[in-house]
């Protein structure tokens, strides 16, 4: 068997459902861009998108925290009277962004990431979001924009269901294995 | 007593940065009277609080290796990781670059990898390092790197033909000797002389004898003797078919190497002679190598197998020619890439030993070799071919071990009775 046709010898551990480790920086970029689209406008939007990409590539640098700060500044610049259901999405996106950044700083890009390994982070994110979304709903109600609550609830509920489904799926697979 | 450095938890700094950011956002939100901005900071503050948790305990990794059929089964177990977020494990097989997996602590308790058996002998199979992450992936504990080694024994095979010394020793045994004795093989008829046994008298031949003055004719038989086989291994080289790898010698890339051919060759030759009731000795040509003194029986076979299994390549080792018993059959197992070993073969042949050169250089592959490599290899091969041709001319049996016709070559050599 020639050198080129010889299969590479790798220690492959069967770990059940997994995604590549690079999925985390990609998710950082996607969530960053999504949050930028929700919050930022004009020039700040461009900066936000660029910063999202930089944060994904350089996740261990201050770039992700600058992006978070930029998003907060963008929210600060928005008209407080124009609050709508997007606030729920912004709260969720910003939270997801920091959780993903913390994970992406730890997980090597060239790795196989077992879905079950995301369980604790997903669980904690879900629990915090339940409280946060309730507070968002209360704020929106106080601002007399209660009519948009069904939309926010639908989005939040769908996300929570997805997270719970992911947890149940990965734990079942792990237990069966 | 403090824990070893590897077992301490370290903060990675992300939680602190996040905490400060959350405080600033909450402050800005409250300062500007913007509840929506303050709400943005709340999940961040909660996440930062999670990173403040202080994980306890010390995780450790262990590897166990076993050989099953044609596979090496490596089990990696990370203990003491309960309650952490996830475990990052990097595992490199056969000194290759590692692959990384990120798994839950439960999965990390028992991970199994199946690897092909690439080589025989003692070798590094798996190298594992890793980290354990807790508190929202902001605290890390490094696992002590572990290396799993295994010793793969050569497969149990036999050779079909046993070559005998040109002149056997005078010990009793199963092979026909070239001297007179009490064996079963007929040698010739001769006049009766004092000392001949009466039962050896061939009455029919005596009656047919044309010479009236002859008294009696006796049947003379060959003696039997056991062969003294000496297997000598040149352990300086361990080169594979991939010529470009001869310098780096990476286990996963060099292919089936010369020592991988040599170990089963030694074991098969020893097994065949010992099963025939002969005596076998094993010597490593390199001065620091191990040897097995001459002996017979099953225990000797296991000893030879154990010694040859533990033989490792010793590049640049100085040679030490073993002392050979009288009229032995010597199997010289080598790549014959240099003149020294060929010189020994000539020396032993001239001393009256029957010498068999077992050539264990794998069929070369020049894939990926540049022009300089090709030229150097060509010169080396020409020299080697000349060397082996010279040995053949000097009545040394040359057997390429990787050759499909090796049994045929041995059978032809078995029929050859040597110079009389």
TrEMBL record, chain A:
> What keywords is this UniProt entry annotated with?
Membrane, Transmembrane, Transmembrane helix
Superkingdom of origin organism: Bacteria
Bilayer-crossing residues are 15-36, 43-61, 81-103, 115-142, 148-169
- Protein name stated in the entry: Uncharacterized protein
TrEMBL record, chain B:
Look up the coiled coil feature and give its residue ranges: none
Q: Does the keyword Transmembrane helix apply?
A: yes
Q: Which Pfam families match?
A: DUF58 (PF01882)
Q: Which domain of life is it from?
A: Bacteria
From what organism does this protein derive? Amnibacterium setariae
> Which residues does the UniProt record annotate as the domain DUF58?
191-361
Which keywords does this chain's UniProt record carry?
Answer: Membrane, Transmembrane, Transmembrane helix
Q: Does Membrane show up as a keyword for this record?
A: yes
Residue intervals passing through the bilayer = 12-33
Q: What is this protein called?
A: DUF58 domain-containing protein
């Amino acid at each position: 068997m020639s050198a080129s046709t010889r299969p590479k010898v790798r220690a492959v551990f069967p770990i059940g459902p997994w995604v590549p480790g690079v999925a985390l920086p990609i998710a950082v970029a996607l969530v960053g861009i999504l949050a930028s689209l929700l919050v930022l406008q004009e020039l700040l939007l461009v900066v936000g998108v660029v910063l999202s990409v930089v944060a994904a590539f350089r996740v261990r640098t201050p770039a992700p925290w600058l992006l978070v700060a930029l998003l907060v500044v963008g929210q600060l610049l928005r008209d407080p009277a124009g609050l709508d259901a997007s606030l729920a999405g912004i709260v969720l996106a910003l939270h997801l962004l920091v959780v993903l950044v913390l994970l992406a700083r730890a997980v090597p890009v060239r790795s196989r990431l077992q879905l079950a390994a995301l369980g604790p982070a997903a669980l904690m994110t879900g629990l915090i979001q339940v409280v946060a979304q309730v507070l968002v709903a209360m704020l929106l109600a106080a601002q007399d924009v209660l009519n948009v609550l069904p939309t926010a609830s639908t989005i939040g509920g769908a996300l929570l269901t997805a997270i719970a489904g992911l947890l149940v799926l990965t734990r079942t697979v792990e237990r069966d294995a | 007593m403090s824990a070893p450095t590897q077992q301490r938890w370290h903060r990675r700094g992300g939680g602190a940065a996040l905490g400060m950011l959350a405080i600033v956002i909450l402050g800005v939100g409250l300062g500007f009277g913007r509840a929506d901005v303050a709400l943005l900071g709340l999940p961040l503050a909660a996440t930062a609080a999670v990173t403040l948790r202080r994980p306890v305990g010390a995780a450790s990794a262990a590897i166990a290796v076993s050989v099953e059929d044609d596979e090496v089964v490596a089990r990696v177990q990370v203990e003491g990781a309960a309650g952490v977020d996830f475990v990052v494990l990097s595992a490199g097989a056969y000194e290759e670059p590692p692959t990384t997996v990120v798994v839950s602590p439960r999965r990390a308790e028992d991970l199994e990898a199946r690897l092909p058996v690439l080589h025989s002998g003692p070798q590094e199979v798996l190298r594992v390092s890793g980290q354990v992450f807790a508190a929202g992936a902001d605290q890390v504990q490094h696992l002590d790197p572990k290396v799993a080694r295994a010793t793969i024994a050569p497969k149990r095979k036999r050779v079909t033909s046993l070559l005998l010394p040109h002149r056997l020793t005078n010990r009793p045994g199963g092979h026909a000797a070239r001297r007179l004795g009490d064996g079963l093989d007929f040698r010739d008829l001769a006049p009766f002389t004092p000392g001949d046994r009466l039962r050896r008298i061939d009455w029919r031949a005596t009656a047919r004898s044309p010479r009236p003055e002859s008294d009696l004719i006796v049947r003379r038989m060959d003696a039997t003797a056991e062969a003294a086989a000496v297997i000598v291994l040149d352990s300086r080289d361990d080169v594979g078919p991939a010529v470009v790898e001869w310098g780096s010698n990476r286990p996963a890339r060099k292919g089936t190497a010369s020592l991988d051919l040599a170990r089963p060759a030694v074991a098969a030759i020893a097994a065949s002679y010992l099963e025939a009731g002969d005596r076998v000795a094993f010597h490593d040509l390199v001065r620091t190598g191990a040897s097995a003194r001459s002996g017979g029986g099953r225990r000797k076979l296991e000893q030879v197998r154990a010694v040859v299994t533990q033989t490792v390549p010793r590049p640049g080792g100085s040679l030490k020619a073993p002392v050979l018993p009288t009229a032995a059959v010597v199997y010289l197992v080598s790549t014959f890439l240099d003149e020294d070993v060929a010189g020994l073969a000539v020396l032993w042949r001239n001393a009256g030993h029957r010498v068999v050169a077992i050539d264990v250089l794998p069929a070369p592959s020049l894939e990926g070799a540049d022009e300089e490599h090709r030229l150097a290899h060509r010169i080396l091969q020409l020299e080697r071919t000349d060397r082996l041709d010279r040995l053949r001319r000097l009545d040394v049996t040359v057997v390429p071990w990787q050759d499909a016709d090796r049994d045929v070559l041995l059978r032809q050599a078995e029929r050859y009775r040597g110079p009389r």
